[in-house]
């Protein structure tokens, strides 16, 4: 099971968090601080798995962002690395060469893509094509709703 997902930049600023287990705000802040120091302080030549508390941190760096998944010890780390890679590919296809600013200003879409991949801490869908189809359908639905709302506001 995936307990949380963090996206950090190289300076340690959190760009996206998604929690699948119950943590209080105080625990979340402490966890982010611990995980950030463990991952950013680690040399690049070492593997992308860290034993932390009763979990395993699986992370991968793409450009200036670290994608970190906290999973149970018995979870297959290589599958989690592949999940991270699929998520980055989906972001890259959606944003057409994703960068940190895309995630900052388009965080709602980044969350939506992540929600299409992972539900309740378990990987639900692995097809990037299908996930992006759902995201584009959702965008079309939002645009049609905005048009309806805009027209009703003009009529009123």
From TrEMBL:
What are the annotated GO cellular component locations? AP-1 adaptor complex; cytosol
Q: Domain AP complex mu/sigma subunit: where? A: 1-139
Q: Does the keyword Membrane apply?
A: yes
Origin, by domain of life?
Eukaryota
Alphabetized GO MF terms:
clathrin adaptor activity
Record InterPro entries: AP1_sigma, AP_complex_ssu, AP_mu_sigma_su, Clathrin_sm-chain_CS, Longin-like_dom_sf
Q: Which UniProt keywords apply?
A: Cytoplasmic vesicle, Golgi apparatus, Membrane, Protein transport, Transport
* Location(s) in or outside the cell: Cytoplasmic vesicle, Clathrin-coated vesicle membrane; Golgi apparatus
> Is Transport among this UniProt entry's keywords?
yes
Biological-process GO terms, alphabetical: cytosolic transport; intracellular protein transport
What CDD domains does this protein map onto?
AP1_sigma (cd14831)
As for family, the record states: Belongs to the adaptor complexes small subunit family.
Name by which UniProt lists this protein? AP complex subunit sigma
